[in-house]
Amino acid sequence: MEEKIHLFVIGTAGCGKSYFTKAFSEYLDLKRIDHAIVNLDPGADYLPYTPDVDVREWFTTADVMEKYRVGPNGAQIISADLVATKAGDIVDELDLYSADYIIIDTPGQMELFTFRTSSEIIINEFGRNSCVSVYLFDPVISQRASGFMSMVFLYSSSIFRLRIPQIPALGKSDLLPEHVTEKIIGWSRDPDKLYDDLIEENDLSGDLFHMMRDAGLIRPLIPVSSITGNGMDDVYEMVQEIFYAGEDLESLRY
């Protein structure tokens, strides 16, 4: 494979980014696809996987609090910007791995990566044409039509900010009753049904909804579970379609 695929895992706090990273890594292991994991969260106390490259090797949020004498929130913001200064070092470390996929676990607070200039610097350092992201919808917030729509807004803002292909997925789908998962996936596939349910909740600007729908920002979700492994194959196939028009990576390598 000539160029690595850089897969960013994005979403709001608690949507399951780190566990998705672990599960997708295990999926790639089963497919015998070489990969590496990058942790971009300097404030992570615990990770369910062992990162190959870890921003905490250079600094942690606790280090920033002590050095700059700021509180936790200020330290998170400073840390988010400091990550960009290590973009070249991260690439240098990744060059030591013969990895076809690089999975990048982003900070817990979505805005610390997506809305900061550091994200653009890191994506450019990796090579924008080699980057894609999985955006995880929070399963709890998405249970109401208005909550689902708020996830669509955040997903859309991520598209506008990062300017790389994005794959929308419903995180932690195993935590939801089957009928609730079907309802959420139904909204993503049938915007008219979503519109009707939003009207019932009396929580919608019609013009705003139609703008989002007509722009193609309401897209079918892939339900994923880091516990059962459900959806990992679908995510993989979507990535393959984005980069290879559906041609399986294994057919290129073996």
In short:
By secondary structure, the chain is an alpha/beta fold.
- The CATH topology of the domain at 5-139 and 165-174 and 222-253 comes to Rossmann fold
Basic shape: globular
Mean of all residue-level pLDDT scores: 90
Return the CATH architecture of the domain at 5-139 and 165-174 and 222-253: 3-Layer(aba) Sandwich
- Summarize the main sheet: 7 strands, parallel
Rg calc: 18 Å
Number of helices: 12
What's the β-strand tally?
7
Helical/strand content category: alpha/beta
How much helicity do the residues have? Answer: 40-55%
Terminal CA distance: 11 Å
CATH superfamily of the domain at 5-139 and 165-174 and 222-253: P-loop containing nucleotide triphosphate hydrolases
Strand order of the largest sheet: 3-2-4-1-5-6-7
> What proportion of the residues form beta strands (DSSP E)?
5-15%
The low-confidence parts are 249-254
CATH class designation of the domain at 5-139 and 165-174 and 222-253: Alpha Beta
The ordered H/E elements are: EHEEHHHEHHEHEHHHEHH
